[in-house]
Fold Class E sortase.
Amino acid sequence: MAATTDTDHEEQTDAPGPPPASRPRGRGRIALAVSVFGELLITGGLVLGLFVVYSLWWTNVVADRAADKRGDKVRDTWAREAAGPGGPGALNTRAGIGFLHVPTMSEDEILVEKGTSMKILNDGVAGYYTDPVKATLPMSDEKGNFSLAAHRDGHGAKFHDIQKIAEGDPIVFETKDTWYVYQVYGTLPETSKYNVKVLGDIPRESGRKKAGHYITLTTCTPVYTSRYRYVVWGELVRTQKVDSERTLPKELR
C-alpha cells in the first residue's frame, strides 16, 4: 500500500470548492420592500391606536376634570349666595346655570352651560341651544323648549348612554333655587343633524301640538360617529323648591 505524502494532502485540501450559489437580486429587493411595508403598517397601527386612546379615553379624563372644577365653582357660588342677603340675584350663564340629572342614562350630574359650540361641549358639559333655535330656560317660567346637546363619545361623553332613556323616565334639572322634574314621553333614535324642528318651542315631531314646558336632549348617533342625531323629549310634570339641605327629589333617590 502506497503511503500518502504531505504534498498529496496539501494538494487535496487546497483544491477550490464549488462557487457559492448566487442570490437573485429581484428576491432581495422584494423581501426588503415587504419588510419596510410591514414596519410601516406596525407603526401606523401604533399611531392609530394611540389616537383612539387619546380620543376615547384621555379627552374624557381632561373634560371630566374641567367639568368638575366648573361645577364646583357653580356650587360654591350658590353656597355663598345662600349665606348672603336674600333674593334671586342675576343669572350667571358664564360659569353654568345648573345641573342635569338623568338616572337611567348616567349617575353623574351634568353641568349645563350656555351654547353648543365644540369649545363649550369639549369641556365635558351639556350646552343649551342659542342657535339656530333659541332654547327656553325653565327659570324664565315661559312656555317653550329647553333644548340641550352634549357629546356621546370623547370629551366627557355625557350623553353616551342616551339610548337607555325610555318613555316615563325622569329627567331632573337642578338650579340654585328649584328642581325641575320632567318625564320622558318620546324618543327619536335617528334623524338628520340638520333637522332643527326637533328643537322647536312646540316639538311637533314628538307628537305635541300645544305650547308647554318641554325639554329636549340631542346627541350624535350612531355612537362614535356624527352622521345623525338621537333625540329625547320630556315634559315638565312638577317643580320642587330647594331646601337648605338640598334634599334630592324622590326621582333621584
Remarks:
- The two ends are 112 Å apart (CA to CA).
- Strands lie at 98-101, 110-114, 126-128, 144-149, 170-174, 178-192, 213-221, 228-241.
- The first helix runs from residue 6 to 13.
- Residues 53-83+93-244 form a domain with the Sortase; Chain: A; fold (CATH 2.40.260.10).
